[in-house]
Amino acid sequence: MYNIKFSLVSLFFIFCVALSPVYAIQDVNFPIPPSFEKRVDFWKKIYTEVDGNEGFIHDTEDFFIYEKIKILHEGQRKKNKAITKNAKETIKKRLLIMAQKKPEEMNVEEKQLFERLGNPSPESLKERAEQIRFQKGQQDKYYQGLIRSQLYLDYIKNEFKEAGLPERLAYLPHVESSFNYQAYSKVGAAGIWQFMRSTGRLYMRLNYQIDERRDPIASTRGAIKLLKSNYERLGAWPLAVTAYNHGPESIARAIEKLNTRDIEKIIDDYKARRFKFASKNFYACFLAASEIAMAPEKYFKNIPKPTALTFAEIKLNQQFTIREILEITKLSEKTFKDYNLSLRPMAFKKNLALPVGFIVKIPSVDKPAITALEEHVVKGARPSPAPGPVTLAQATVVATSASQALITPQPTPAAGPTIALASSKKVEEDEIKIQTHYNFKLKQVRKGVFQIQAQHSESLTMLSDWLEVPLNHLAKINRLKVSSDLSLGQKILIPLKKTKIEDFKKKREEFHLSVEEDFFDNYKIIEIKKYAVKRGDTIAALADRFDVPPWLIYQIQKKDLHSIYPKQVISLPVIQARVEQEAPVIPGNNLNEEEVEEESDFNPN
Q1: Does the pTM exceed 0.90?
Q2: Between 11 and 118, whose confidence is greater?
């Protein structure tokens, strides 16, 4: 009798599971709380049912979808903003009118919507009227990401497996960049994992020649370190994933403030200035995107399967320029670029020397190229006399708006070297050129100690790296905390030997030059608008709100902008991608109507 009962119970359980949503079987590392089911279903629709020329008007809290609307091509930003604004206003007015009526007074259309919403109260309808948002579809972008991901996905999964982390995390780039290996955001996040420079430099190599944020494998190792650090600090994978987008400091504050590690409670109850729609939905986006990626045939038909890249790795024991390697291997520049994604475009344009220890990737099918480079590395032979690496010490750097830099040695001006963006070729018709300036002057205050003025984007951590001195020591001599932010023009004391001056100057100049080159290689300024500063505004907040890099806001002002204050009129740039980029699939911030960017756009951070 016991066996019969057990069998019946088992059959009943199996029957229930079969009829239940996919959420009945949970991933213990990445649970789906009950209130998240609608969120996850919503993002699955965005990734699999709606392409980039349409989108949903939806509720921001329960993700109720009011309607699907058509929008124009991605380049028609202003027209699309008008289309979505009109659609949202129409829904808002309808809800407010319904809130003033009794159910029996509603017309047929209103009655249908009222019933779809579950017969809400007038107060609920008024609340809903303030929770309306447009979300652009991502089906086409996600589909392309599925195809691209297969080039490196096996490598990425293996890295997570070897690190002892859940392999499901290998699908996070679908959320960050749609597996676009060339992804570069307006604010400077690069590669499939969308590392900012400030974070990337903690986990990988970033200099003028090499940016490992762009390398799928090197950046994956960096992402593993960051995700592992998040998990060890926060104690749960949903929080570690959310912190990848929002930052571990803020999530740690949420845990302390709410006394919980429950992602559901934190999403519902945590209030912080920057903890908005994007951060609140990042974990749900990951759940949806990874679920699709683990069984793509359920959502897409006839997915092409490109052959995964395979390559040999050869570690350089001496400096080689890129042209030397191309001459030795007989590889085309395009093939070499495709396999060595960590090399910045300027490394090719300027034929920079690759450093000792750099690992060159050669297609595994090209045995002659592998053999030829290995022989040169072992024997130390060179195909021709190699020029030394290009340096920027005591140089004026002139870069085109498309970042083709020319280096002309000149005496250093009194205020320090100037990095200027001045086109040496015809620029695009709608492009606005700017000239940028930096104060790199070194003032000696005593033996072995100099004073500098901090420039935008610089930090104590960065300076300590360039100086090769402990961060604690640098903070101490300036009476600052190691976490202190630096303001533009702030006077900083640095310990610096005369023998290290040129090296420090070179690293500092190359950092700022690389930031500008990377930006103008991908984006252009098409308009400069005037903006009246409001109470509570900061440069960082404005940069975040308008999706532009903070350094560009500083640089386009006619006068140095050391601080801002209410009613002050400043300039803000409107920027556009030079070539249409694959949009990442995380939700952008829910922007106000007065702002220049549409709320449905995505920020690849």
Answers
A1: no
A2: 118
